[in-house]
Amino acid sequence: MSATEMLHRMVGIDMPKFSLGEIFILEAEFFICLYEELKDIFRAQYKNYFKLMRFNTEKEDAMLEANFLRFVINDILVSEEYSLEGIAYYTQIPEDVICDVVAGNNSAPSLQLTKKIIDLHRSVRPTLYRETMKKIVAQYLISE
Q: Which residues in 36-55 are b (16+ Cβ under 10 Å) and which e?
């Protein structure tokens, strides 16, 4: 299910009323919000590491951004629903590329790979994404 379909189901937005360009903008906005929420989740997971390394918020952000997709892939692997081979098969990306991301050798993967990994992560952790989408929608409704 796409982010726009989730939005439609959660708040009853009539998607056919939006142009294709507006839908792309909406999806991009949700992607940015989702990215920030996931980054906060990973920040909490690595809180002790950041404290040990005496990182300030700026250094934490840099580390989280450089390793974002790596953390998402590791979360998929921890779920034990997919192996590296399974992730490569699902995303139709060579296993070597996935391994480079996991090993930290590729900290700037393509947007196509990022999207495929996020889609897979969403299927592995649907509750996390539903709750995050609800939180995003609630924030937008409150800000108006």
A: ebbbeebeeebeeebeeeeb
* CA 118 and chain centroid, separation: 5
Question: b/e for 70-102, b at 16 or more Cβ within 10 A?
Answer: bbbbebbbeeeebeeeebbebbebeeebbeebb
d(CA 91, CA 112): 9
Of 67, 135, 72, nearest in space to 107 by CA: 67
What is the torsion angle, in degrees rounded to the nearest 10, for the CA atoms of residue 94, residue 99, residue 101 and residue 105? -110
pTM of the model: 0.84
Q: Which residue has the tokens 């139709």?
A: 92
Using one digit for the tens of pLDDT, what is the confidence trace for 47-73? 999 999 999 999 999 999 999 999 999
